[in-house]
């Protein structure tokens, strides 16, 4: 159990000492992941940029991610899970369109800085990984942009997601892989909603 995203970030940062002062880039998944990533960026002296990812939720279950959308309309979709939840082609098509627009709007709000990812070592940070859908979308995007190395750094991750993601990235660094995983917030004493304004302030204060 972590006290807060900030405390989780401090604990996680200690596990990434080998990346200190390296020519790496931290991508904080908005919005909660940016708060954790701030601690890593400060400790490791590595630039931080936000990456906007929007999950595609199952019909009738907004908490269950069956896919996600990120930059340049990069889409990850768990087709088997989508089918199980009764998501129709029409439902998915509409959701993808809506989420792509949200990604574009928020990206314009958070940063105008172009990301140069080709040949770079990228550390992807979130406050927790349950299904792994949002992270898979980011990994897919980074591979498309030809990042040299992809590391996932996260305070807590579900075992199923860990085993699946481990096969597609170079390394996963975490504090906890619990046997039972409900929602990310269960592993935090304090888990407030993070506003767009907080993300903007974090980005302003850090080297990037």
Report the mean per-residue pLDDT as an integer: 93
Total count of domains: 2
List segments where confidence is low: pLDDT < 50 over at least 5 consecutive residues. none
CATH topology of the largest domain: Rossmann fold
Biggest pleated sheet: 5 strands, parallel
* Number of helical elements: 7
Short description:
With 208 residues, this protein is of the alpha/beta class.
Descriptive overview:
- By secondary structure, this protein is of the alpha/beta class.
- The chain has two domains: 5-53 and 112-205, 3-Layer(aba) Sandwich (Rossmann fold), CATH 3.40.50; 55-108, no CATH class.
- It has seven helices and eight strands, in the order αβαββββααβαβαβα.
- The chain has helices at 5-14, 32-44, 79-84, 89-110, 133-144, 159-166, 196-205, and strands spanning 24-29, 48-51, 54-58, 61-70, 74-77, 121-125, 149-156, 171-176.
- The strands form two sheets. The protein has a five-stranded parallel beta sheet, with helices on both faces. Strands 3-4-5 form a three-stranded antiparallel beta sheet.
- A hairpin with a 2-residue loop joins strand 3 and strand 4.
- The chain is globular.
């Amino acid at each position: 159990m972590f006290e807060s995203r900030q405390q989780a970030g401090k604990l996680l940062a200690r596990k990434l000492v080998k990346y200190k002062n390296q020519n790496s880039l931290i991508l904080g998944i908005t919005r909660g992941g940016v708060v954790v990533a701030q601690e890593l960026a400060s400790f490791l002296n590595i630039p931080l940029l936000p990456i906007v990812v929007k999950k595609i939720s199952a019909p009738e279950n907004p908490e269950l991610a069956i896919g996600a959308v990120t930059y340049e309309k990069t889409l990850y979709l768990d087709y088997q899970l989508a089918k199980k939840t009764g998501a129709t082609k029409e439902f998915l098509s509409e959701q993808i369109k809506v989420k792509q627009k949200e990604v574009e709007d928020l990206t314009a709000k958070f940063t105008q800085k172009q990301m140069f990812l080709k040949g770079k070592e990228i550390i992807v940070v979130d406050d927790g990984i349950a299904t792994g859908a949002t992270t898979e979308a980011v990994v897919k995007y980074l591979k498309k942009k030809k990042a040299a190395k992809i590391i996932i750094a996260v305070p807590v991750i579900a075992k199923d997601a860990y085993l699946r993601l481990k096969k597609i990235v170079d390394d996963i660094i975490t504090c906890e892989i619990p046997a039972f995983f409900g929602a990310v917030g269960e592993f935090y004493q304090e888990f407030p909603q993070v506003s767009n304004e907080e993300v903007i302030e974090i980005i302003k204060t850090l080297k990037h």
